[in-house]
Design a protein that fits this description.
By secondary structure, the chain is an alpha+beta fold. The protein has 8 helices and 25 strands. The chain folds into 3 domains: 41-129, Nuclear Transport Factor 2, Chain: A, CATH 3.10.450; 164-242 and 425-444, Immunoglobulin-like, CATH 2.60.40.2250; 255-409, C8orf32 fold, CATH 3.10.620.30. Strands 1, 2, 3, 4, 5, 6 and 7 form a 7-stranded antiparallel β-sheet that branches. Strands 12-15-10-25-19 form a 5-stranded antiparallel β-sheet. It has a 5-stranded antiparallel β-sheet with strand order 13-14-11-23-24, with no helix packed on it.
Length: 460
């Protein structure tokens, strides 16, 4: 009996010792976690810039990398602040654009470790070349991520949500310093057959009014500001339900979509080029002619946010054969209209399919052309990035986007001193009579209902 009592006391003491050891380890772990400095995205941005600057100094003025035996001499173009992420204690992710001396632009993924001010890079990978990815990301069931070759990726990993998408969209503006009175024009997305938009809140330092642009029916928020509003913020928050866009009938007149605009000329060199591209297809249907123009741009243009891009200048696009979505679609529209195919321009934002919240990489634009009694959506810059989806984007726009405004050369009353607005995605602002460019940031949060979540993929 005594032996049993001793054994019992031994087991009890051992159990207590184990519990004490476990408790002490947990307390030690908690203390360690508490001692880890809090990291915000600004810390990660500073960390990646510092690491790149160090490599540039060591590399004689360039960030040097090697791809398939080729030496790249790169310079920092920008940090994708919308993708900066804290992956866990002292683990971080950053994505940047670096331009090579050849003119190519590389999207590079960086993994970092460490605390604010002492971060170091642990892994560097070339993700995209001129907007075209070498791989994408997919999430495992245990919530970790792995790279997947593009040829093995499904359309949902390449930015496409079919059917329907629901999300909350935030349009945020930080006002610049103003030393005199200013005016600002901001696009206000509207509901139509493909998107239902509810403006939930407007936070602004002054009263506003909604203007109606008559030629294309756009709604525009107009405000007048004073110097005391410098540095203040405006925010518009929307609830959005968006349907995938397919060819559709529209009773409105199409003849105005054959006319030239300031940066999308019609005729002359565009007529000659369109005729040479279409060639013998002049005797076929409009669909085949439009597809020939679409394929020509995919095959000959490079998606590059470098040089003179972003204005949607079809002449520049035709000469340089580079640009972003505005150049791709402006060139298409000039060629299509020169070939007698009505076509039109729209701009908004593409909502990431790979995550459910966070920042958005600026605006995105697209086009439509008229054939067989219907408007056919096209997205040529996305088709250029993901050639596997070239067929999809000829006649489809995915559900994960929001449209801000339509058309070019927008006449607004009262309007800017500079004249018609080229297109309206970011705010148009004038301080006095001088154009100003306020900091603008888009973000979103996807609605977590069953219908939406079934269509949503993982992070790139």
């Amino acid at each position: 009996m005594k032996d049993l009592q001793i054994m019992y006391l031994f087991v009890l003491a051992l159990a207590m010792a184990c519990n004490t050891s476990t408790r002490e380890k947990k307390e030690e772990k908690d203390l360690t976690v508490k001692n880890i400095p809090k990291v915000v995205t600004a810390d990660i941005e500073e960390g990646i810039k510092a690491n790149i600057a160090k490599k540039v100094e060591e590399g004689g003025g360039y960030f040097n990398m090697t791809m398939e035996g080729e030496e790249l001499r790169l310079q920092l173009v920008r940090v994708h602040t919308e993708y900066l992420s804290n992956l866990g204690p002292r683990r971080h992710f950053a994505c940047v654009d670096l331009a090579d001396v050849s003119g190519d632009v590389y999207d590079v993924d960086f993994f970092l470790k460490g605390d604010p001010g002492t971060m170091t890079v642990t892994e560097t990978t070339l993700h995209k070349l001129n907007g075209k990815p070498f791989y994408t990301w997919k999430q495992r069931k245990d919530k970790t991520w792995y790279r997947m070759p593009i040829q093995n990726a499904s359309s949902d990993l390449l930015g496409v949500i079919e059917g329907e998408d629901k999300f909350e969209f935030h349009y945020e503006i930080t006002l610049p310093e103003m030393k005199e009175s200013a005016k600002m024009w901001i696009p206000v997305p509207q509901s139509d057959r493909f998107q239902t938009v509810e403006l939930k809140t407007i936070e602004a330092p002054v009263e506003h009014q909604i203007l109606k642009e008559k030629n294309y029916g756009n709604s525009i928020l107009y405000i007048e500001l004073s110097p005391e509003h410098s540095g203040q913020q405006l925010e518009l928050v929307y609830d959005v339900k968006r349907q995938e866009k397919k060819p559709y009938e529209d009773d409105s007149s199409v003849t105005k979509y054959l006319n030239a605009s300031l940066l999308m000329p019609v005729g002359d060199r565009f007529q000659v080029l369109a005729d040479s591209i279409i060639g013998q297809k002049h005797n076929t249907g409009i669909l085949m002619q439009a597809r020939a123009l679409y394929d020509y741009i995919i095959d000959n243009m490079r998606y590059m946010k470098f040089g003179k891009y972003g204005s949607g200048d079809a002449v520049y696009a035709c000469d340089a054969l580079t640009g972003n979505c505005t150049e791709f679609h402006s060139l298409f529209i000039s060629l299509a209209r020169s070939a007698g195919i009505p076509s039109r321009f729209a701009v908004g934002a593409s909502i990431p399919s790979d995550r459910d919240e966070g920042g958005i990489d600026g605006y995105h634009c697209w086009a439509e052309f008229y054939a067989e009694g219907k408007w056919w959506p096209v997205d040529i810059s996305e088709a250029n990035k993901y050639t596997a989806l070239a067929t999809y984007y000829f006649g489809r726009h995915p559900a994960n986007r929001i449209e801000f405004s339509r058309g070019r050369d927008l006449h607004i009353e009262p309007g800017p001193h500079s004249g018609p607005v080229n297109f309206l995605a970011y705010p148009v602002m004038e301080i006095g009579k001088t154009p100003a460019f306020p900091e603008t940031f888009f973000s979103f949060q996807r609605k977590a209902d069953k219908e939406a979540s079934e269509n949503v993929a993982s992070l790139p």
